[in-house]
C-alpha cells in the first residue's frame, strides 16, 4: 500500500494514482464517519460541525480562499453564545489559569504515585516541591484576592507550571513560539467554560504577528523576565 507510511495533514487523505504514486487530496466532509453529539465542534465561522473530520475537510476544500484561511477549530462542542469578556474579567484570568495549571500538575503527580507515564523524572522532581507546599491551599474555587496573595507569596511555585504548559503546546515545531494550531488543544477545550480565553490569547500576542513567543506567554501570566 503506497499510502501506508505517507502522511497527510488534517483535512486531507492519501490517494494513490494509477502509477501507484501517493498524494494528498481533500477529505470529503460528506464521507466522514458519523459522530456522537459530544464529538461536535464549533468552527470560527460560528457553524457546528459533526466532528473535526468534517471541519478540516471543509477547510481543505476552501484552501486558497480568505474563508479557508480564517476557518479554524474554535472550541469543542456545538456552537453556543459565548458571553463578552470584560476588561475586569480578562485582568483576573491569569490568576485562575495559573492556579488551574498548577492543579493539573498536582493531579499528574498524584496519579504517578500508582502508575508512571504522566511526568518524566525531571518533571516529577520539579513538581514534588510544588506538591509538598500545595497542601496548605486546597484546590478549588478561590477568590481573586486569595489567588493574588498566593501568587505574590509563593511566586516560584507558579513559574514551572506556566513554562510546562508552554512546552506541552510548543511541539509542531518546537520553536519557542505558539501558532494558532498549537494553541488549539488548550483553547478549544476551555472556551465553553472560560469565555475570556480567546481575548486573553489575542492580547498575549503583543506584537500582533499571529505567534505567541515564550516571552509573551510568560509576560501574560505575570512571570518576571
Automatic annotation (TrEMBL):
SUPFAM superfamilies: EF-hand, EGF/Laminin, Kazal-type serine protease inhibitors
Keywords: Calcium, Disulfide bond, Extracellular matrix, Glycoprotein, Metal-binding, Secreted, Signal
Subcellular localization(s) per the UniProt record: Secreted, Extracellular space, Extracellular matrix
A molecular function GO annotation: extracellular matrix binding
Tagged with keyword Lipid metabolism: no
GO cellular component, one term: extracellular space
Kazal-like domain segment(s): 25-81
Cross-referenced InterPro entries: EF-hand-dom_pair (IPR011992), EF_Hand_1_Ca_BS (IPR018247), Fol_N (IPR003645), Follistatin/Osteonectin_EGF (IPR015369), Kazal_dom (IPR002350), Kazal_dom_sf (IPR036058), Osteonectin_CS (IPR001999), SPARC/Testican_Ca-bd-dom (IPR019577)
Annotated family: Belongs to the SPARC family.
Protein name: SPRL1 protein
Species assigned in the record: Anseranas semipalmata (Magpie goose)
UniProt lineage: Eukaryota, Metazoa, Chordata, Craniata, Vertebrata
Amino acid at each position: 500500500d503506497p499510502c501506508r507510511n505517507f502522511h497527510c495533514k488534517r483535512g486531507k487523505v492519501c490517494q494513490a494514482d494509477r502509477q501507484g504514486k501517493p498524494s494528498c487530496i481533500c477529505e470529503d466532509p460528506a464521507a466522514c464517519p458519523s459522530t456522537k453529539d459530544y464529538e461536535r465542534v464549533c468552527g470560527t465561522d460560528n457553524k457546528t460541525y459533526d466532528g473535526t473530520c468534517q471541519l478540516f475537510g471543509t477547510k481543505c476544500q476552501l484552501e486558497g480562499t480568505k474563508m479557508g484561511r480564517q476557518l479554524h477549530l474554535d472550541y469543542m462542542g456545538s456552537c453556543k453564545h459565548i458571553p463578552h469578556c470584560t476588561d475586569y474579567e480578562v485582568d483576573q484570568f491569569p490568576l485562575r489559569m495559573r492556579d488551574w495549571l498548577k492543579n493539573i500538575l498536582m493531579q499528574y503527580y498524584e496519579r504517578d504515585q500508582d502508575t508512571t507515564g504522566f511526568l518524566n523524572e525531571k518533571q516529577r522532581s520539579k513538581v514534588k516541591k510544588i506538591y509538598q507546599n500545595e497542601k496548605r491551599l486546597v484546590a478549588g474555587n478561590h477568590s481573586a484576592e486569595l489567588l493574588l496573595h498566593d501568587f505574590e507569596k509563593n511566586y516560584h511555585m507558579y513559574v514551572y507550571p506556566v513554562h510546562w504548559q508552554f512546552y506541552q503546546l510548543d511541539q509542531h515545531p518546537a520553536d519557542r513560539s505558539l501558532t494558532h494550531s498549537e494553541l488549539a488543544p488548550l483553547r478549544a477545550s476551555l472556551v465553553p467554560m472560560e469565555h475570556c480565553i480567546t481575548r486573553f490569547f489575542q492580547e498575549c500576542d503583543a506584537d500582533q504577528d499571529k505567534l505567541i513567543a515564550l516571552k509573551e506567554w510568560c509576560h501574560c501570566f505575570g512571570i518576571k523576565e
